Amino acid sequence: MATQLVYGTLAWQSYLDHLIAACSHRPPEDLDAGVRLVLRLALFQISRLTRVPQFAAVDTAVQLIKTYRSGAAAGFVNAVLRRASRDWQQVPLPSRDHDPIGYLATALSHPRWLVERWVAAYGVDDTEALLRANNEAAPTLLRVNRLKTSPAQLLAVLREAGLQAEPARYSPVGIRLDHPGPPERLPGYEAGWGALQGEASQLVGFLVSPQSGSLVLDACAAPGGKATHLAELMDDRGAITAIDIHARGVTHIARLAHRLGLASVHPVSADATRWQPPDAGQRFACVLVDAPCSGLGTLRAHPEVKWRRTANDVARLARLQQQLLAHAAPLVRPGGVLVYATCTLSAAENDEQLATFLATQPQFAIDDPRPLLPESARPLIGSDGVLRTFPHRHGLDGFFAVRLKRREEQSIVRP
Based on the domain organization, do 150 and 269 belong to the same domain? Predict the structure, then answer.
């Protein structure tokens, strides 16, 4: 319940502020931050939940505000919420016909700049479906470590423990869990039977599809989900250099690999736009650039992201992604593979990034990944050979991933 209140209030923040403005006759930004947050929390319960009686939401909010600055605003909070309890369904919204951007941004609680971009890319109806899906809770996915157990065995153990568990739709090593609680309490978790990883994220490992014994580079590896999946796909044979710029991220990678019992993952603290292998001539059979991105495909699990990101962030991250790709390209051996992946729906970070790379690195071409993917996931690949997933179309986070193969020629454009 606490999790639902926190994530739900974040997801519906701008809609709740619309109700605050209508029921208080004051702009939400003019209110004290604590008062505004308590009103949002109560209005989420009143307008979006059925399990909490309205009187209980109002009373709890009033009691909560009484603990804040001696409760000087208790009367104001009580008045606003009582008015909202009666009138919130009659609060007008912008017209969908005359102001579709304003309607979608307000009614479905997304920043206007983001709605404008998605309407331009997908149209009003498809964007509305996407926004509605973004406001739903993300499922919890477990990736089975097949070096220690099988999906069928772990599924049976989870169900025996009373958990609601089902096979994932697209990933053969994915298990979908409903209300699993803390991961360390899951059967077999501490023994390394599995790791939490979104289903779309799991599919990236199959796009890389490293061979056992290969040299692999994961250029932006924290927290380690994809690096450890690659190690499992390689039967823990070979070597995966897992780079992250932050020391804390490197620690996360090392801990995850240790818990899963994987010896082939070698975490390195470095800047992937500058890092060179200790052996100057070393090249990798597979390089994964799971790039830092705006994260706009993961709003179901991270609703706060839509309020933190700006259009300037997208442009800044696109420049960083271009630097990462330019530096990674020479590290791929002739005949090797470079996989570029993001968890965003931003064209500037996805399709435009790919077009720029192919224009400046003619030694690479898109490699059709469908033969490498589980049969259930092959329909997710477009006619251009690129993986694209969407919350409202596939029930997955919004991901973009492309497998690029380097030709056998030795020459390559360096950054």
Answer: no
What six digits make up the tokens of 31? 């209110």
Residue 226 sits in the same domain as residue 366: yes
pLDDT at 414 over 70: no
Q: Are residues 291 and 308 in the same domain?
A: yes
Residue 331 near residue 284 (C-beta atoms within 8 A): yes
Q: What are the b/e assignments for 37-61, b being 16+ CB within 10 Å?
A: bbbbbbbbbbbbeeebebeebbebb
Are 158 and 211 in the same domain? no
| DSSP assignment string, 149-192 | --HHHHHHHHHHTT-EEEE-SS-TTEEEEES--SGGGSTTTTTT
Host domain of residue 90: 2-134
Distance from chain centroid for Cα 64: 33
List the alpha helices (DSSP H) in 33-191: 33-48, 54-66, 74-87, 100-107, 112-122, 124-134, 151-160
286 a catalytic residue: no
- Whether the model pTM is above 0.70: yes
Give the orientation angle of helix 2-11 with respect to helix 13-24, to 10 degrees.
80
Is 16 in the same domain as 67?
yes
Which residues are paired to 140 by β-bridges? Answer: 177
Q: Give pLDDT tens digits for 159-207.
A: 999 999 999 999 999 999 997 788 999 999 999 999 999 999 999 999 9
Length of the chain in terms of residues written: 415
Q: Among positive and negative, which fits the CA dihedral 257, 258, 261, 266?
A: positive
- Scored b (16 or more CB within 10 A) or e, 7-36 reads bbbbbbbbbbbbbbbbbbeeebeebeeebb
CA distance 21 to 93: 12
Total count of domains within the chain: 3
pLDDT tens across 82-108, in order?
999 999 999 999 999 999 999 999 999
Rounded CA-CA distance 91/21 in Å is: 10
Considering 23, 286, 293, 343, which one is annotated as catalytic?
343
